[in-house]
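Lab meeting, item 3. Inverse folding demo.
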């Protein structure tokens, strides 16, 4: 059995940062499932046909601090992380047929020596047998701050009250939709990292991994 760490949580909970650092540290594969939904939304917005096939030609390069998303030699990182694509990806993710289309694409990340997968339904739908299931969360204020910094680091101008509304709407929709909503599974361990540094959060999760594997 290939080991899996599934991390679910709302936007700005830090799951992206934590999952990426864990994967780099363990030398395991990394699935940013939100990115798959974002790519779908980006291709849809740009009226690209055969989206399912085109998604596999989008490349994700990353290290601990930076990332680059490339489509047909074009750097689309800023578009993919924009507020517009955040909203559109959340909207389209409510549709069952789109979730079904993206299921196998996500499953294909499960390869030796292991996988760190983050998103909304990693524990509940994609990898329900994973021994480590984490529900990562933080207060709305802290998540808003993180999102703000993330967008500013991408050189984007941000309207704080608009961002707060967008984050609230997106969280509500992602948690209340009928198909595969964000939910804490019975096996998930809740980690609230409102007052934790990235390093502290990492060591809490590494301890859980060591206990379970
Ligand atoms: O994690 P993120 O903010 O990049 O995700 C963007 C959107 O994609 C999110 O608002 C809902 C959707 N999503 C999903 O429905 N299921 C996942 N496993 C990951 C993301």
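The presenter then showed the designed sequence:
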């Amino acid at each position: 059995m290939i080991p899996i760490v599934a991390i679910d949580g709302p936007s700005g909970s830090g799951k992206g940062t934590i999952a990426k650092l864990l994967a780099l540290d363990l030398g395991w594969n990394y699935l940013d499932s939100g990115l798959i939904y974002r790519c779908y939304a980006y291709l849809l917005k740009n009226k690209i046909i055969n989206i399912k096939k085109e998604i596999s030609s989008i490349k994700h390069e990353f290290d601990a601090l930076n990332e680059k998303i490339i489509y047909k030699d074009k750097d689309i990182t800023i578009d993919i992380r924009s507020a517009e694509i955040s909203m559109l990806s959340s909207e389209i993710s409510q549709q069952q047929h789109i979730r079904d289309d993206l299921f196998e694409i996500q499953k294909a990340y499960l390869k030796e020596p292991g996988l760190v997968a983050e998103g909304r339904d990693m524990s509940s739908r994609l990898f329900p047998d994973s021994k480590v299931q984490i529900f990562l969360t933080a207060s709305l204020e802290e998540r808003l701050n993180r999102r703000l910094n993330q967008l500013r680091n991408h050189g984007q101008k941000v309207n704080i009250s608009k961002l707060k509304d967008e984050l609230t709407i997106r969280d509500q929709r992602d948690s209340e939709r009928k198909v595969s909503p964000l939910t804490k599974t019975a096996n998930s361990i809740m980690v609230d990292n409102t007052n934790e540094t990235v390093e502290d959060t990492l060591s809490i999760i590494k301890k859980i991994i060591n206990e379970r594997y």
